[in-house]
Write a structure and sequence with these properties.
about 600 residues; alpha+beta; Rossmann fold; Elongation Factor Tu (Ef-tu), domain 3; Alpha-Beta Plaits; 5 domains; 8-stranded antiparallel β-sheet
Length: about 600
C-alpha cells in the first residue's frame, strides 16, 4: 500500500569531504532500525572498498527509513546520499532535485569549507529547506561558537536553530530525526497526475539489467506499465519496482513522493541519462523536468597496460566498468612508444584516479597512465573549428588561427595568514583574481579564474602544502578562452615520442621542456650509442640533453706499437657506434613517462 504523501520526507546530507556525512548516515540507519546491529559496518552506504578506504562517497545511494514519533504516526524518511567531490557536481544537483530538504553538516573543528559553500548554493537554487548541523562536537579542538558565526555570516542561516551532534558517538541523532519530520515539508504532486519521475542514478545489474533510481514527482508506477524515457523516446515495460532498506526490496507500486528503483529490461546503461524524466507511455506528462544536461568529460588521459599481452584484459575490464559508470568515455589509441591502449575521458582528476584504481584492483591489471590533459578548441585559418583531447591531433602551427582552452572559476577558503602564498600559487598558474573577501575575522574567500590545464596536475596538492592543509577548493566550469598555446614535443634521437607530447602555454614551454628532458636524461639508461634528447616546438628545438654512450676500452689489448694501430681501432669503434645509432632502439623505462606528472616536470 502506498504511503500517504504527508508522511514522506525526502532529504539529503550536504557536507564537505570528511565532515562526517557517511557516519551520520550510519547513525540514522542504526537509530531507525533499518539494519540489525550484526549487519552494521562503518560507512554502510559506501559499499565500494575505495569509498571506505578514502572516506569519500563516489556513487549516490538512497535508503528508506521508517521513523515512529511519539503520537504513534510512522514517517517514511528517504535519505538520498550524494557524492561530495567537485567532480560529481551534476550528480549532486540531480540528487538534490529529488529532495525537499537537506542536513547541512559542518565539522565543529574545521568550520565552513569550499564544498560546503558550493553544495549549499546548489541546495538554495533547488529551493531546499536547510537544517544546519554542527558535527564532531566531542573533539577536543571543537569550536562551536566560531562555526555558528560562520553559518550565520557566510551561509546566511541567521536565527535558525543549529543542531549540535556527534555522529561518531551518537549524540543528538534523535533531535536530527525530529527536525527532519518537523522542518522539511512533505513532497508535492498528485497520484492522479500522469507519471513523472526524475531519474537521478542508474547502474547495471547482471540479473535485472539496468536499475533506475527514481523520485516520483507525480502519478505512480506498477509492474507491467509501459514507461518512456523522455530524452530518447525509448519505451520499456516495467518488470519490478521497489525500495532500498538499504537492501533491494520489491514492492507492489511506487507512488508520488516515493524514492525507489525500477527495472524494465533495459540492456545498455548508455540508454539512460542522469536527470532524465520517466513518464507513462500511454498517458505521458506534458513537460519533462528541467535541468537535464549532457555530462561531458573534462579531463583526458591514455591508459596502457604495462604488459602488452594484457591489452585484451584491459579492454574487457573497461567495458565491464563502464556498465556501472557511464560518465567516463573511452576509445582505442595506438602509441608508437607504449603500444595499444585507450584514450579515456573523465569528469575530473579524482574521477580519473578512482577509475584507474578500480581497474587495477578489481581486474588485477598493471597500468601506465599518460599525463592528463583537457579538451581544446582549435580554429584553423580556413575557419574550421574542432575539439581535440590529445596533442597528436593538433594541426601544424602554420594552419592554426587560434586555440581556446577551458577555464574554471575556483573558490578557495583559507585562514588569512596564507593569502600571500595562495595568491602566488594561483598567479604562477596563470590565474586571474576576481574576488577576495573576509568571511570572518580570520577566514578569507578568494576567487580565481584559472585554466583547467593548470589545475589538473598538482594544484590541489600544492594548495594544501602552501596553506598547511587549511585551504579548501571548489570550482565550476567557466567556458573556453583564447590562449597562446603550443605543442611541446620530446624527441629522442630525432624521433618524436608521442606519449610525452603536451599542449602548453608558450610562456612555460622552455622551462617545462628543459625540466622534462633533464629528468629523462636521469631515467633513460645509457646505451651502446649516444642518445640525444630534445624538446621542440614545431621544427624549432628549444632545449637539448645528451646521454653519452657506454664505451668498451678497445685499446686494452694494445701494448706498445705504432699509434696508427690505436687510431684504426678507435675509428672502427666510432663507425660501429654511428651505424648502431641508426638502427638501435632506445629503451625507455615506464618511469620516464610518469616523469611528466612529477614536480620536476612541472617547474615553471
Amino acid at each position: 500500500m502506498a504511503t500517504q504523501r504527508e508522511l514522506i520526507r525526502n532529504f539529503s546530507i550536504i557536507a564537505h569531504i570528511d565532515h562526517g556525512k557517511s557516519t551520520l548516515a550510519d547513525r540514522l540507519l542504526e537509530h531507525t532500525g533499518a539494519l540489525d546491529p550484526r549487519e552494521m559496518v562503518d560507512q554502510v552506504l559506501d559499499d565500494m572498498e575505495l569509498e571506505r578506504e578514502r572516506g569519500i562517497t563516489i556513487k549516490a545511494h538512497a535508503v528508506r527509513l521508517n521513523y515512529k514519533v511519539d503520537d504513534g504516526r510512522s514517517y517514511v524518511l528517504n535519505l538520498i546520499d550524494t557524492p561530495g567531490h567537485v567532480d560529481f557536481t551534476y550528480e549532486v544537483s540531480r540528487s538534490l532535485a529529488a529532495c525537499e530538504g537537506g542536513l547541512l553538516v559542518v565539522d565543529a573543528a574545521q568550520g565552513v569549507e569550499a564544498q560546503t559553500l558550493a553544495n549549499t548554493y546548489l541546495a538554495v537554487e533547488t529551493n531546499l529547506v536547510l537544517i544546519p548541523v554542527i558535527n564532531k562536537i566531542d573533539l577536543p579542538n571543537a569550536n562551536v561558537e566560531r562555526v555558528k558565526e560562520q553559518l550565520e555570516n557566510i551561509i546566511g542561516l541567521e536565527g535558525r536553530e543549529v543542531l549540535l551532534i556527534s555522529a561518531k558517538e551518537g549524540i543528538g541523532i534523535e533531535k536530527v530525526l525530529q527536525a527532519i519530520v518537523t522542518q522539511i515539508p512533505p513532497p508535492r504532486g498528485s497520484y492522479e497526475d500522469p507519471l513523472k519521475a526524475l531519474l537521478f542514478d542508474s547502474w547495471y545489474d547482471s540479473y535485472h539489467g539496468v536499475v533506475l533510481l527514481v523520485r516520483l514527482m507525480g502519478g505512480g508506477v506498477i509492474p507491467g506499465m509501459k514507461i518512456r524515457l523522455m530524452s530518447n523516446e525509448q519505451v520499456y515495460e516495467v518488470e519490478q519496482v521497489g525500495f532500498f532498506t538499504p537492501k533491494m526490496v520489491p514492492a507492489k507500486e511506487l507512488s508520488v513522493g516515493d524514492v525507489g528503483w525500477i527495472t524494465a529490461g533495459i540492456k545498455r546503461l548508455r540508454d539512460t541519462r542522469i536527470g532524465d524524466t520517466i513518464t507513462e507511455h500511454h498517458r505521458p506528462t506534458a513537460q519533462p523536468l528541467p535541468g537535464l544536461k549532457e555530462v561531458k568529460p573534462m579531463v583526458f588521459c591514455g591508459l596502457y597496460p604495462l604488459q602488452s599481452a594484457q591489452y585484451g584484459a584491459l579492454r574487457d575490464a573497461i567495458e565491464k566498468l563502464r556498465l556501472n559508470d557511464s560518465s567516463f568515455s573511452y576509445e582505442p589509441e595506438i602509441s608508437e612508444a607504449l603500444g595499444y591502449g585507450f584514450r579515456c575521458g573523465f569528469l575530473g582528476l579524482l574521477h580519473m584516479e578512482i577509475i584507474q584504481q578500480r581497474l587495477e584492483r578489481e581486474f588485477d591489471l598493471e597500468l601506465l597512465t599518460t599525463a592528463p590533459g583537457v579538451k581544446y578548441r582549435v580554429t584553423t585559418k580556413e575557419q574550421k573549428a574542432k575539439e581535440i583531447d590529445t596533442p597528436s591531433k593538433l594541426p601544424p602551427p602554420q594552419q592554426i588561427a587560434k586555440i581556446e582552452e577551458p577555464y574554471i572559476t575556483a573558490t578557495i577558503i583559507s585562514d588569512d595568514q596564507y593569502i600571500g602564498a595562495i595568491i602566488q600559487l594561483a598567479e604562477e598558474r596563470r590565474g586571474i583574481q576576481t574576488g577576495l573577501e573576509y568571511l570572518s575575522a580570520k577566514r578569507v574567500l578568494i576567487t580565481y579564474e584559472l585554466p583547467l590545464n593548470e589545475v589538473i596536475f598538482d594544484f590541489y596538492d600544492k594548495l594544501k602544502s602552501v596553506s598547511r592543509g587549511y585551504a579548501s577548493l571548489d570550482y565550476h566550469y567557466a567556458g573556453y578562452r583564447d590562449s597562446d598555446l603550443v605543442r611541446l614535443d620530446i624527441l629522442i634521437n630525432g624521433q618524436k615520442v608521442d606519449a610525452l607530447s603536451m599542449i602548453i602555454h608558450h610562456s612555460k614551454a622552455y622551462t617545462r621542456g628543459k625540466a622534462l628532458i633533464e629528468k629523462l636524461r636521469e631515467l633513460i639508461p645509457r646505451q651502446l650509442f649516444e642518445v640525444v634528447i630534445q624538446a621542440a616546438i614545431g621544427s624549432r628545438v628549444i632545449a637539448r640533453e645528451r646521454i653519452p654512450p657506454i664505451r668498451k676500452n678497445v685499446l686494452a689489448k694494445c701494448y706498445g706499437g705504432d699509434v696508427t694501430r690505436k687510431r684504426k681501432l678507435l675509428e672502427r669503434q666510432k663507425e660501429g657506434k654511428r651505424r648502431l645509432k641508426r638502427v638501435g632502439k632506445v629503451d625507455i623505462p615506464p618511469e620516464a613517462f610518469l616523469a611528466v606528472l612529477t614536480a620536476e616536470g612541472r617547474k615553471g
